[in-house]
Design goal:
The protein has about 1250 residues and is mainly alpha-helical. Helices cover about 60% and strands about 0% of the residues. Strand 5 and strand 6 form a beta hairpin. It starts with a helix and ends in a 16-residue tail after the last helix. This is Ribosomal RNA-processing protein 12. It holds the Pfam family HEAT_RRP12_N. It comes from Somion occarium.
């Protein structure tokens, strides 16, 4: 029986003693069915359950023919339908098809009687979903089945949410999984029903405010219908889409906001559906659809409908543009003109939706529209659509009506820039954005410089888009940086905010960086050096940051630059090399530029879609031609040898943290190097290794060897066969694999693995394994992971006739499973599994060639997984507990991996053998054995484990009281799994001693207690929340061995407090206002955007306002800042507030939890002391206690921060002097808190 069905049924069986009839009836029925199976020796399969339930259902219906069937909570018929709905998804489809007539005759007549009863009706729907998905096309035409489907369709508008949702899911799933054909045969009927329902809704109209009943009968039906239509829409035939579209267009006229929003949203989805039938293509009706939508604009105050309306117009224009671009371009201005006024809305969500819609419209620009706009610009005319759009957008930047919409207008400008990359005269000519939008960009940059402009982030985003479309060469020509000293002296505003925008793909050539920014950075270097020499570190830091920002933008010029050959001159290359050597802070930027210089040109030259997809969108939007990229790659290939030499030197000079980036650049350049240069570099590296090993084994020589091996690893994918063979033999030498330096060993094994994996070397596995066995003595712990990886690759290449090599590797691999390093353990497990797969493939094991094999056992054995398990099991006779424990862990991994390939007899032998080790006195062995037992209970069939329950339970109970190594928790988890698989009675009966039984009873109680807590939590919470699943370890074996689904981890403490209220603060959508400046008159006709603020409109504090709160000494004129006690004397006692605080904090107080439960405060010393301090003290008591010293520290006085340790300082007994230490804004605050302020404003 399927495990998933068994898990489902296992949750039902315990409810035989439930007090709830709807839980008890299915459990009782299930137990009765399984008792019948046991009497008849019938296996519990889904088919057996299915047949038994049909028979039981038939008997129940025959007994109820004389009267109406009962569908109450405790009746048999709902229980039968419930279990049948759970079982039938697991029944094979041929079985369902053969019993279709029986299913229909029993269940179809129940639909009318089931309608008033929601729970059995949902079970009936689940049953029919499985039936409909199992049938072939011919059976779906059965008359009774079509009638049943008709009944299900009408339930999609049922007023009950759960029934309606279940019916809608059924229809969607059935249509989405048709029998082998393009479309489900029921799709036409669903489309007809939807059209009829929409027609009924639109013809009858929706009642408005005529009572609750009328509202629910009209609007709710339309809402339910639209909710059903959205997921089903892609499955309907294309011939029905025009009629559905017409009906949806009429819904907004009915005046219901939610219906209008849903209709527009569905229309937007409908327009994006690809239509395969050209005859019934909805694209032909797009002009009519757009006209209907434009004819019914929403009110500006209706935010929800406006957003959906604007969205459907945007989607409609995109669909129209794809169908007929020229016709759509003629409609563009009409739609733009209709949508644009909603940009003035006070609702931020509406403005955002309008901006998205306008962005969709900018995607509809055609080359003809763009070309006509450029021609009009040259003739100073403004009649074209694009010129009017740009003029309207630019004008809005200064308009007071659109002041609050400035961020959205900037988004529209960004959209215009992004979709005007068109070049009228091909590559090299200016873009349409440069011709048409340069004035708008300059205006945005001017706004960005104004101090009162609040939307600087939005302006930066738009200017960044302009940088990517226009390029620095064009943009900086119109917007100079003004960062030189002469510019500052002339009073020009600097535009340093443009520098971070350089680091993105743009069309400017690399020669612009060489001619413009290289001299610029040299001037900045000089200014930095001058400032450092004159002792101005802050100024020097400014120049240093500017230099960093410039060079960080170098890689933006390197995405397929058209003038690479002219720009990458020897002089510029020498400058880059010097920066790599001498400027560590600029090194990452230069390395990134060198890498992208190669990768982008290679991707464009190849024309490969996958490579091009890795490039940024800006690099793909306006790339150079494929021929130009190929020429760039050919030029770079001539520079490879010199650049790789430079990069090798840089690699050896930087630390370990910086080698990764240098290695990426080396890998990129090595991929395009020609064979001659590559062979020369590889030989040079090999000679370095030989020279380093020939010298005395010093740290310096070993460091050189490690660095050189790192470089060889980077270049290994591009080795020729001869180079790979030479390198393989070099690294297989004992000087490398037995080096005292961990790094040399690790890299030696890595090189061997890379070469073997590349397949460029003919590998003699037997010879290599023998040579590797000789260097085992010098192996360091750090190299074990890489050695295991190499052995894994070699095992896969062992021929079937040489499997006698496997036993020689087993001891090392088994012991590797106990390595401290997790990566080494995982590699050892992979090696063990790989050997198992190799043995499972078949072959011959020549026992006479196995080391240490007795002559009596010599011969040949057939390779199999069981033979391999026998080899592994030899470690159980090891001399050390460590070896025995490692062997048990290895066997556990193999049992998990090959559980289906191992015979039941072998399973039993392994289980009985390892079960003996539970009696061991060594904890390491027991720990591994507990892991195996947990795994076996999870994976082995029940029938194999049941005979051994009497051995398992006592052996586990022996460790149930042991807290060391978490044995008690591990045993409890194992018992929890046992209880789930075998039931309480079977497990409990195997416990003989009373103390052992108490352990099991305790586990059962804890489990039941956890269930009750979850049930109470579910009752208290209004919303159902799914339990949070424990994070998986990422490996199935680790999850089974160490993870647990135990419910016993639940704490016995009280449930955590209720959920916090997540109601956020209300957004102030109309928060934008004009900033008033008394010193400067405001021009409301221009520059309004710089006057807009969303800050709080509270009145500013004027100078001297805080000082007016304090008294003044008549003699000296100084302000007197009194202590809090002066004001406390005049304050009335807050009796009610004090009583409330005491009820929360005192020892006699209490609090209420989220469930309304009272929780009394604990009577702690702290609370008692606070109560004593707060009580009224009689005079006599006060005098009596005055002689005792208080252990509590007195509150610090004003100015205690400035008091010297050995002198009086400025704080004197009479008061504070001087008085200027206390900030007036702090001292002027109301005194109501217990904390005291120091004169520095500290608490």
């Amino acid at each position: 029986m399927a495990d998933s069905l068994e898990e489902t049924l296992a949750k039902i069986r315990p409810h035989t003693s439930s007090n709830l009839p709807h839980q008890k009836a299915p459990a009782t029925l299930l137990i009765a069915l399984e008792s019948t199976f046991a009497e008849q020796n019938t296996q519990r399969t889904p088919t057996a359950y299915f047949a038994a339930l049909l028979t039981t259902l038939d008997s129940t219906l025959q007994a109820a023919r004389s009267s109406t069937p009962d569908f109450g909570d405790g009746d048999v018929l709902p229980a039968e339908l419930y279990i049948l709905a759970l079982v039938i998804p697991h029944v094979p489809h041929p079985v369902i098809r053969s019993h279709l007539s029986t299913i229909l005759s029993l269940t179809a007549p129940l639909f009318p009687a089931l309608v008033p009863h929601a729970p059995p009706l949902r079970s009936q729907l689940s049953l029919y979903e499985a039936v409909l998905r199992a049938l072939d096309r011919s059976q779906l035409e059965t008359h009774g089945l079509r009638q049943a489907f008709e009944s299900i369709l009408h339930l999609c508008l049922d007023p009950r949410p759960k029934v309606r949702k279940r019916a809608a899911e059924l229809v969607k799933d059935v249509l989405a999984h048709p029998p082998p054909s393009l479309r489900h045969p029921y799709a036409d009927r669903v489309a007809e029903w939807v059209q009829a329902a929409l027609a009924e809704v639109t013809s009858g109209g929706l009642p408005k405010f005529k009572g609750k009943k009328a509202e629910s009968e009209g609007s709710e039906t339309a809402i339910h219908l639209l909710a059903f239509l959205r997921p089903v829409l892609p499955c309907l035939p294309s011939s029905s889409l025009p009629a559905i579209t017409s009906s949806l267009l009429t819904l907004p006229r009915l005046g219901n906001p939610y219906v209008s929003q849903s209709a527009y949203s569905i229309l937007a989805d409908l327009l994006l559906i690809p239509v395969e039938d050209p005859v019934h293509n909805i694209q032909d009706r797009l002009p009519e659809i757009l006209d209907a939508i434009l004819a019914s604009p929403p009110l500006r105050t209706d935010s929800s409908v406006t957003s959906a309306w604007a969205g459907v117009l945007g989607h409609g224009m995109i669909a129209y543009h794809e169908a007929d671009a020229e016709a759509a371009s003629k409609k563009l201005w009409e739609v733009w003109h209709a949508v644009w006024p909603f940009m003035e809305s006070t609702d931020a969500s509406v403005r955002k939706a309008v901006a998205q819609s306008l962005d969709s419209l900018t995607q509809c620009f055609t080359p003809s529209i763009t070309a006509s706009a450029i021609k009009e610009k040259q003739s100073n005319e403004g009649k074209s659509t694009l010129r009017k759009v740009i003029a309207q957008t630019t004008k809005a930047l200064d308009s007071l009506a659109f002041a609050r919409s400035t961020p959205e207008i900037l988004l529209v400008v960004s959209s215009l820039l992004s979709h005007l990359r068109f070049r009228q005269d091909g590559q090299g000519s200016p873009t349409a954005a440069e011709e048409l939008l340069l004035l708008s960009v300059k205006k945005i940059a001017d706004l960005r410089l104004q101090k009162g402009f609040e939307y600087k982030e939005s302006a930066d985003a738009t200017l960044s888009v302009a940088m990517g479309v226009l390029g620095p060469e064009v943009l900086l020509r119109e917007l100079p940086l003004n960062l030189d000293v002469a510019d500052r002296q002339a009073g020009r505003e600097p535009r340093a905010f443009l520098l971070p925008m350089l680091s993105q793909p743009h069309p400017s050539p690399l020669s612009h960086f060489v001619s413009y920014f290289v001299p610029f950075t040299e001037r900045m270097f000089d200014l930095q050096a001058k400032a450092e020499a004159e002792g101005r570190p802050s100024e020097a830091k400014v120049w240093s940051v500017l230099v960093d920002q410039v060079w960080s933008g170098l890689h933006g010029y390197c995405y397929g630059t058209p003038d690479l050959k002219e720009a990458l001159t020897p002089q510029f290359s020498q400058l880059l090399s010097q920066l790599l050597y001498s400027q560590p802070n600029l090194r990452p930027a230069v390395l990134k530029a060198l890498r992208l210089m190669v990768e982008s040109n290679v991707a464009i030259a190849s024309g490969d879609g996958e490579r091009l997809a890795k490039l940024p969108e800006g690099a793909r939007a306006d790339p150079i031609s494929q021929e130009a990229a190929s020429a760039n790659v050919a030029f770079l290939r001539t520079q490879c040898e010199s650049w790789l030499a430079v990069l090798f030197n840089v690699f050896t000079s930087v630390g370990r943290d910086g080698q990764g980036m240098v290695g990426d650049v080396i890998r990129a350049w090595a991929s395009i190097a020609d064979e001659k240069a590559y062979h020369k570099l590889v030989n040079l590296l090999n000679q370095n290794v030989v020279k380093a090993q020939a010298t005395s084994a010093t740290k310096e020589s070993e460091s050189v060897t490690g660095m050189t091996l790192d470089l060889l690893i980077l270049m290994s994918p591009y080795f020729s066969s001869s180079d790979a063979t030479n390198l393989f033999n070099l690294c297989l030498a004992s000087d490398i694999l037995e080096s005292r330096d961990n790094a040399v060993q690790k890299r030696g094994y890595k090189v061997l693995s890379k070469v073997v994996e590349s397949g460029k070397v003919n590998v003699d596995a037997e010879d290599i394994l023998q040579r590797l066995d000789k260097v085992t003595d010098g192996l360091t712990a750090a190299a074990k992971k890489d050695r295991f990886l190499l052995l894994t690759l070699l095992v896969a290449r062992i021929p079937p006739t040489s499997l006698h090599l496997v036993p020689s590797i087993i001891p090392e691999a088994v012991l590797g499973t106990k390595e401290p390093s997790e990566k080494a353990r995982n590699a050892a497990f992979d090696l063990i599994v790989t050997m198992g797969k190799k043995m499972a493939e078949g072959g011959v094991v020549k026992r006479n060639l196995v080391d240490g094999m007795d002559e009596d056992s010599a011969g040949e054995a057939k390779a199999s997984i069981e033979e391999y398990m026998t080899m592994i099991a030899g470690g159980l006779a090891g001399a050390t507990p460590h070896m025995i424990s490692a062997t048990i862990t290895a066997i556990s991994r193999l049992v998990f991996e090959f559980k289906d390939d191992i015979s039941p007899q072998m399973h039993v032998e392994i289980f009985t053998t390892l079960l003996v080790f539970l009696t061991s006195a060594n904890r390491e062995i027991v720990k591994s054995t507990l892991g195996y037992v947990k795994l076996a209970i999870h994976t082995m069939p029940v029938e194999l484990l049941r005979p051994h329950l009497k051995e398992i339970v006592p052996a586990l109970l022996k460790w149930s009281h042991d807290h060391k190594n978490h044995f008690k928790a591990k045993v409890r988890h194992i018992f929890e799994r046992l209880l789930r698989r075998f039931g309480w009675e079977d497990v409990y009966s195997c416990a003989t001693e009373d103390s052992a039984r108490k352990v099991l009873l305790n586990i059962k109680k804890r489990k039941d207690r956890a269930k009750r807590k979850r049930a109470r939590a579910a009752e208290n919470d209004e919303e159902d929340e799914e339990p949070t699943a424990k994070p998986a370890a990422g490996d199935a074996f680790e999850d089974v061995l160490y993870g647990s689904e135990s419910e016993l981890d639940d704490s016995d403490d009280e449930m955590p407090s209720g959920r916090q209220d997540r109601a956020g603060k209300r957004k102030d959508n109309g928060g934008a206002r004009l900033r008033v400046d008394d010193d400067e008159p405001m021009d409301l006709l221009a520059g309004a955007a710089s006057r807009i603020t969303s800050a709080n409109g509270k009145k500013r504090r004027k100078p001297g306002e805080d000082a007016a709160r304090f008294k003044t000494d008549e003699d000296t004129g100084k302000m007197v800042i009194g202590d809090e006690q002066d004001e406390d004397e005049n304050m009335e006692e807050d009796v009610a507030g004090r009583a409330y605080r005491e009820s929360l904090t005192s020892a006699d107080g209490f609090t209420r939890g989220p469930n309304g439960r009272v929780k009394f405060n604990k009577d702690t010393k702290k609370r008692r002391r606070e109560n004593e301090d707060g009580e009224d003290v009689e005079m006599a008591d006060a005098e009596a206690s005055s002689g005792r010293k208080s252990k509590r520290k007195s509150d610090p006085k004003l100015g205690h921060e400035f008091k010297a340790k050995k002198a009086g300082g400025d704080v004197k007994k009479g008061g504070v002097d001087p008085y200027a230490y206390l900030p007036l804004s702090q001292a002027a605050k109301k005194k109501g808190r217990k904390e005291r302020l120091g004169v520095a404003g500290k608490r």
